[in-house]
Amino acid sequence: MERIQVALIGAGRMGQVHGPNAAAHPGLRLRYVIDPRDEAAAALAARLGAEAATLDAALADPEIRGVLVCSSTDQHLAHALAAVAAGKAVFCEKPIDLDLDKARAAAPQFAGARFLLGFNRRFDPHFQALKQRLDEGAIGALESLHIINHDPAAPPPGFVPTSGGLFKDFTIHDLDLARWLLGEEPVKLYATASCLVDPEIGRQGDVDTARTVLATASGRLCVISNTRRSGCGYDQRIEAFGARGMLCAGNPGLDTVQMLDASGVHAAPIHPGFASRYALAYARQLGHFADVLHGRADAAVGYADGLAALALAEACADSLRRGHAVAL
Amino acid sequence: MERIQVALIGAGRMGQVHGPNAAAHPGLRLRYVIDPRDEAAAALAARLGAEAATLDAALADPEIRGVLVCSSTDQHLAHALAAVAAGKAVFCEKPIDLDLDKARAAAPQFAGARFLLGFNRRFDPHFQALKQRLDEGAIGALESLHIINHDPAAPPPGFVPTSGGLFKDFTIHDLDLARWLLGEEPVKLYATASCLVDPEIGRQGDVDTARTVLATASGRLCVISNTRRSGCGYDQRIEAFGARGMLCAGNPGLDTVQMLDASGVHAAPIHPGFASRYALAYARQLGHFADVLHGRADAAVGYADGLAALALAEACADSLRRGHAVAL
Amino acid sequence: MERIQVALIGAGRMGQVHGPNAAAHPGLRLRYVIDPRDEAAAALAARLGAEAATLDAALADPEIRGVLVCSSTDQHLAHALAAVAAGKAVFCEKPIDLDLDKARAAAPQFAGARFLLGFNRRFDPHFQALKQRLDEGAIGALESLHIINHDPAAPPPGFVPTSGGLFKDFTIHDLDLARWLLGEEPVKLYATASCLVDPEIGRQGDVDTARTVLATASGRLCVISNTRRSGCGYDQRIEAFGARGMLCAGNPGLDTVQMLDASGVHAAPIHPGFASRYALAYARQLGHFADVLHGRADAAVGYADGLAALALAEACADSLRRGHAVAL
Amino acid sequence: MERIQVALIGAGRMGQVHGPNAAAHPGLRLRYVIDPRDEAAAALAARLGAEAATLDAALADPEIRGVLVCSSTDQHLAHALAAVAAGKAVFCEKPIDLDLDKARAAAPQFAGARFLLGFNRRFDPHFQALKQRLDEGAIGALESLHIINHDPAAPPPGFVPTSGGLFKDFTIHDLDLARWLLGEEPVKLYATASCLVDPEIGRQGDVDTARTVLATASGRLCVISNTRRSGCGYDQRIEAFGARGMLCAGNPGLDTVQMLDASGVHAAPIHPGFASRYALAYARQLGHFADVLHGRADAAVGYADGLAALALAEACADSLRRGHAVAL
């Protein structure tokens, strides 16, 4: 298999997730790592058998056919636009941008581009298995949905101001899952939330515990449950209720060992965070991007999906602010 | 142990649940069965070693110290009032009444009465185990709650008009559980619902699929999930999320047998309906009423609890009608 | 339904299990309780609405049509014989006797008698569900079997000398299950055992930890695992392996609550002992005896089954003594 | 991290497992692939960025510091000896050889060598978690053990004659696990077996369904359960019973999705075979070999472990042949 050359923009947290997957993929060659912090770029490049480069140089190299945008959120859109303008296929971490108007305004420039947005959960094998059985009709017509997305522990101080807030930063994953699974667009939404985990989050104007209810035109209902701190690990589940039964994708445990003693039955914790829980999803997502580059697939999650999820996230914030349901 | 004599009003569905438990309890003697349908009263009385009687006769008998009100919903309040007026302790099936104003107006007449309302789920051993661990602080302070209450199959035609609607008939159980577990009264509520199970239910003005979100003054959140038809049995679960972890009360299976073959791992269905799922809860509830009669306990669920749940059910209907959240 | 009168011999541990089930059964009337300890007989009789009596009086009463033999093990055979001689149907606790020769010699006197031997595990709903699926061919032809029977805690001092030893007292249940499930008689057997739980058991000449392997003529294999002290409750499981898959009957938990915290996933203990674990099996076993008395069923476990299990238990002890496999 | 160069002998089934793990390991560089079938060597080398070579050339290259012996079983010993003689560290697939005498005779030549034998199950994360909790004393002193090793489907015709038979080919894994977990050497062993899966296996003089019971000097007992065809996938479990409870390592499912419908609760199959089930174990095993090469660890499984397991496998065959227990 030909190894198509790609460049990685961003040597931070997500670059360190996607870079190794690109380097290990038999159909890709990670050629450049770009980061304004020279040392970070050089270190990650060395680790992955790539070379540090400037953005301009990487985009000017005709051998580079794909770009992984893993820069800071406020740079996603600019970097994606530059890569698209240079004729590259783009994998872009979510969200496209925190500003819906800005993201909408840029949409025309992505027309026709090969663009994959990083909603990794669509590539999780457990969630994909649920989706497949749903599509096969295992439980008949879908009627309602529960999406549980609970982070293990509160984010560090200073995270909130640049995060876009709970809905745009965190719930957005679930809003995308809801769109993916419901098979219809939501037409109405109600979000309510509290600050129970850390009062500092509240002081910075955000919430940490939320419930959102979506309804589609045909009456399908979806509840999204979010908290910033579960106390028991990274709780990631989906329950789908249909006319003939239900499907649940549960939390994989860290191992299968059970210990029985006089006090009960004890099993391993669930995954401690996104890195291990979604390791396989990230690898499969990158594999899908390789398929896009090799012309074997169209991008499963496009720019329009990013806009739609962002619009729903804004609507959640709006519902919370106004204290009641909003029509979409 | 002395066997205190009790009378049962109603030989229908719920009378056939509570009557046998009263007859089998070592501290009770089921003496009379009262039902306007003479044959039904006689048949149940014969089966349980009791005798058919009129309401007046039973209430006039000084040996009778407790009355089980299992008549039709529209008779609950009148029968409970009559029994209280006769100085009897009363166990009354839920709901007290479908009319909140009427129920409120009657409240003073229950002051000082020994009155146990039939919210059976508070007596379920699984839910009690969850409550106990919550109260012991196993997961720290409670922050949010999911209550799943899904009926196995749609009710028969003709049920809807006299039922009071989904919220007063069905969700009311969950509203009581929410009050029991949250440790605070809800101050705000949003309900949304659809008719997805049976269009006939919609034609009769009711809904069959609903999600309700409650919030308390301190910001605790509770989601109630209801459907009239799960397709997979009687799905009855509670998930409680706290500062240090979570507690889940799941669905007990019909047996523990697992079958593994080439297609996967297969286990028995969950319970098919309320009668088997809550058999032990009903027996323990009746045992609690026996304790009340013997002076060993105060009624754990009183008239005020019935009023509070009914008020919340009305608020759900109000929220649905108005399309947005309501303050309580 | 007619209530057929029965007498209970033995007000001890097993009498207190079977007596209440007989008293509560709608097709039986527990009339007499017989025990050489007058007070014990009187107390149990009073509690169950029966009367204390002598064995002779009970057997002479033509109204008594069934007898429950729950006396001490060394009296089982004599009491069963007396009851059969008096024309009564007999439910007899296991084992028939600890002396195989004596039990064999008595066999002709049970010819034609209605005799149900108390191998309660055949009436456990979990094991029955496994048996039913096996018989339905869910896993194809049975090839091998694991039976796990682990007691929660070592027996009290003084128990061993009259118990008959681990194999006749404890493994005998599993030997009966093996015969029930294998569908063929074992033709070869190997037992090995240790004293690991309590050295006092070893001093009294018994063992507390054992593994037994049975083979049938067609080559089906069965392993029986026994220990006198599991440390985690009453571990009672069956695994059946067939040509197309496997069936496992697991340990029901005390409740369905799971607690997740940072240390893992925690569930309730398994049952602490036989009384609660097999409560339903005992009730169903008594129900089956009622069916026998009412002429609705033939006894599912007969005298020959008792002899066969006892012979296998002797063969286990023989194999252990000789240190190698024995042909049957 | 320096990438130490290694050579792979054997481009067949196991070479295709270990080769990619060596190629992907950050501390190793897979330099040569050796196989008498030139095309196979070339194809695997090309896929893994290595080059095809002769054994002599590879062993003569001073840059090669480690050798992976994945040739056919009858070549394991010769290849391992050649590599050791050339001063290389050796990873050798199990078994060392099918001939115990031959393997014993060669033992002195491995004195002082860095030699890791491929008992992959010791590196499985589930079994390692069980071992760790056992070593931590979670269930007190170990008393007995069940090892379940059931292959998914019967081997192809022609496999049996060169396999060494069930015990040396298959049970040998479990005998090694038993030694690893028991903490004592077995002193007595009994094996019984049947041919139930495929009569052709019997015609070729082998068995396909077996149970083996081991006992140690202190009385610890271990049962090994084997079949060549489970009908439900690759059933790989361990149960350890101690003074204060039990530990079970179960079968990880292919995903966490549960489907509930009217017929029951349905989950994904267990793993279909060794490749996916032990993928992580193989990677960790290779990682351990890298640690040995880097001087960070001594080989966890040595030549003596191979001899010991092989001796036990021979004893199993001996016990089966003689029909009774054998002392070791």
From TrEMBL, chains A, B, C, D:
Domain GFO/IDH/MocA-like oxidoreductase: from-to ranges: 127-247
Species in which this protein is naturally found: Arenimonas composti TR7-09 = DSM 18010
UniProt KW Oxidoreductase keyword: yes
Domain Gfo/Idh/MocA-like oxidoreductase N-terminal: 4-105
Key word Signal present: no
Pfam families (alphabetical): GFO_IDH_MocA, GFO_IDH_MocA_C3
Protein name as catalogued: Inositol 2-dehydrogenase
MF term (GO), any: oxidoreductase activity
Similarity annotation: Belongs to the Gfo/Idh/MocA family.
Gene Ontology cellular component annotations, sorted alphabetically: cytoplasm
Keywords: Oxidoreductase
Organism superkingdom: Bacteria
Gene Ontology BP annotations: NADPH regeneration
